[in-house]
Structures are given as C-alpha cells and as structure tokens.
Design goal:
The chain is an all-alpha fold. It is built from 16 helices and no strands.
C-alpha cells in the first residue's frame, strides 16, 4: 500500500484543502492551475494566422504500413531482443526492481522516452515496434486492410493504464514480466487471428497514439484527419495518466489508506478515463462546424504527450531509471555480472530536488498544452477558437493541479 501522510486539524486552526495548500512551489496548486490555464487560453486566442489546409488528408506513418527497409530492420531486431530480455528478466531474474532491467526499461523508460522521442524526432515507433516485427514474420495482411475506427483501442488501453496507475506494484519485476508477456502474446495472436494491419491500426493503443504524436515535430498535425474514436482514445490516455499523478498526491490520500485501496483505485481510474473521453468528445461537439471538429483531437495530441512525460517523471522514476539502465544492461538478470558497472552505483535519488522536479513536470505538461493551443490556432479562425480554447485551458489547469498536489 502506498504510504500517505494523514492530516489532523488542531483545535482553533482553519482546515485546509490539498489544492489550496503550498507544497514545494511558491503558490498553491489551485493558483498554479489558474496560471497555466490562463497561459494556454491566451496563446490559443491570440496566436496569429490560419495555415492553408491541404486538399487531401495526411497519411500517418504507422509502424504497420508498407514494407520495411534494411535500415528499419536493424533497430527493430534490437527492439525485439530487448523485449525478450525484459520478459525473461522480469520472470526469472532478480526479484528486486533496482537489480532487474525489466522495471527500469519497460515502466520507467520505454513509455515516456518513446513519447518524447516521437515529439522530437517523428515516427520513432515505426523503427522500433517489436509486435509488428513479430507479426510480420508470422502473418501477412491483405493490402486492403487499413485503419478504421479506433474505439477498440480505447477499450484495450484500460488494462494498460490500470497496471500503470491503479495496480499497487507496477515496478515489481515479476509483475512487469507477466504484463509484458501477456500483452505481447495477445497482440501477436490477435494479428494472426484478424490480420496484422487491421489489429495494429484499430486495436493496439500504444502504436496508434505514438503514430499520432509523431506528426507534431513535422508540423503536420493540422493536416491530420482523426479516425472515429480518436477523442475516446485520447481521453482514456489522458485520464488514465493523470489518475496516476492524482493517486500519488494528497488528493487521493484517504482512498490509498483504505482497506480496499486497489478497488477504489480501479473505480477512480475508470472514472478519470470516462471523464477524459467525455470531456474531449464534448469539446468536439461544442466546436460546432464539421471542419472545426477534427481540430479538437489535433490539439489534444501534444497535450497528451506532455502529460505522459510529466507524470512519468513523478517520484523521480524517469531519472532513476536513466541512471540505473547502463548498469542493468550489463547485468539484466541481476546475477552480479558487473559488465558495465554496478547498477545503482552513485545513484542520485532526487537530482532535481523536490521543487525542481515539480517545476519541470509543470513546464513539460504546460508545453504540451501550449503546443496544442498553437495547433488549434493554425487550424481555426480567431472567431471560432473560443470553445476549444476554453476547454484546453480547463484541462491544462486540472493537469497542473494534479501534478502540483504532492
């Protein structure tokens, strides 16, 4: 169970609320949320100009599309090897998350680093997707199989975020190995059953979202035509990720100490995912015109990327994994090989400090929302931006409060 402080109110004192207290920032989480939300609203409404739209929708560079060049095959083989090592290490290696490569590689690094790399470099997942690589060897897809509704991916994302956000021991090596093995088997088996392209383009949430995020560095999000269910998938990813931050904050202190903490966390996760999906869907409805509605999903994509990276930094998980990885690569199973140095030697558990960590998290999350505001401004005329701009502003404020209440 996650240890949390209990608050007591002495006689004669005024009771406080988590969002109005000061933690490691000069102002309260509520004020922080107001400031960041106002910044996003200002940029969304004031950013000049509308870019000339394309005459046809922009194709997304997904991992499953077309053939693979020899240059792509090499990093894919490395990704498959790392996947196999992580599964084996998680299941039979050292049962210590600081001496086993699986937690640091899969939970600590893979998810946020892939998102960050997609933001900075583009379609990184096409160069690394291990499940598509395995499925290509075992099955062939018909050329006519293509992307459709991604509603199934929104549903299949729930177990993934339950493990990351609601499960009590996401860094336990045995749990990481089991989760990774089950997800890999289900994904490859489904590719065999229904077709590689069909499954990966409609049901595999990780690859779908990474392909969308990869449009950001090339400035091509305004030309992207979101598929059916895009708002639901983005809402589940945003809600599920933010719940991880909330569960580790003072806002969830009482449920964490309850007898059925995991059940309450599961219900909380479902509620957050439902609210996230509903909020983005309502923004799309309020957007009004048929030409404006796709910009909601376009604007939310960079916001989701910022949320994922910011929450991954919580409790110094990302920085700790980066420091552990070199040594763990030399001894992935915790057998004492010491080929690249001992894992954890010279580890700095809090390199940014408490205040610095929260400040960087808020900066990353806010940068994602600001990028979303610019995407909105490049696609919609000033007079039509207000509903979506206000929605982005409120989502940014809520995200800042969740991150700051630690």
């Amino acid at each position: 169970m996650i240890p949390v402080p209990r608050f007591t109110v002495a006689l004669g004192t005024v009771p406080t609320h988590p969002i109005t207290q000061r933690y490691d920032l000069p102002v309260s989480p509520f004020v922080t949320g107001c400031i960041t939300g106002a910044m996003v609203l200002l940029v969304a409404l004031a950013w000049p100009g509308v870019r000339r739209p394309r005459t046809s929708p922009l194709p997304v560079v997904e991992s499953w599309r077309n053939g693979l060049s020899p240059l792509v095959v090499i990093p894919r083989l490395l990704a498959v090897a790392l996947l196999v090592v992580a599964i084996i290490a998680g299941r039979v290696g050292a049962d210590d998350d600081l001496e086993n490569i699986a937690p640091a590689l899969v939970v600590g690094l893979a998810w946020p680093v892939l998102v960050l790399a997609s933001v900075l470099l583009g379609p990184v997942w096409r160069w690394t997707d291990p499940w598509d690589s395995a499925a290509r060897v075992l099955t062939r897809s018909h050329p006519g199989d293509g992307p459709g509704s991604v509603w199934p991916a929104a549903a299949l994302a729930l177990p993934w975020f339950w493990y990351l956000s609601a499960y009590q021991y996401p860094l336990a090596p045995r749990s990481v190995g089991l989760m990774l093995a089950v997800y890999s088997l289900v994904t490859v088996a489904a590719c065999l059953a229904v077709g590689r392209v069909r499954w990966l383009s409609t049901c595999e949430p990780l690859g779908i979202v990474l392909a969308w995020i990869a449009l950001l560095p090339r400035g091509r999000l305004p030309d992207w035509e979101p598929p059916r269910g895009a708002e639901a998938l983005l809402g589940v990813v945003a809600g599920g990720t933010l719940f991880a931050a909330v569960r580790r904050s003072e806002l969830w202190a009482a449920p964490n100490s309850a007898e059925r903490a995991t059940l309450l966390a599961t219900l909380g996760l479902l509620a957050f995912c439902a609210v996230g999906a509903l909020a983005i869907w309502c923004l799309a409805i309020v957007a009004g015109s048929r030409s404006t509605r796709p910009t909601v999903a376009q604007a939310v994509v960079p916001a989701v990327a910022g949320i994922v990276v910011a929450v991954a930094m919580d409790r110094n998980r990302l920085t700790t994994s980066l420091q552990l990885l070199p040594g763990l690569l030399g001894d992935p199973f915790g057998l004492g090989w010491d080929l690249l140095g001992r894992p954890g030697a010279g580890l700095n558990p809090a390199p940014l400090g408490a205040s610095g960590l929260i400040a960087v998290q808020l900066a990353v999350a806010t940068a994602g929302y600001l990028a979303g505001a610019i995407v909105l401004a490049r696609s919609v005329r000033r007079g039509e931006r207000a509903p979506v701009a206000v929605g982005l502003s409120l989502l940014c404020g809520a995200s800042a409060i969740a991150l700051a209440t630690h």
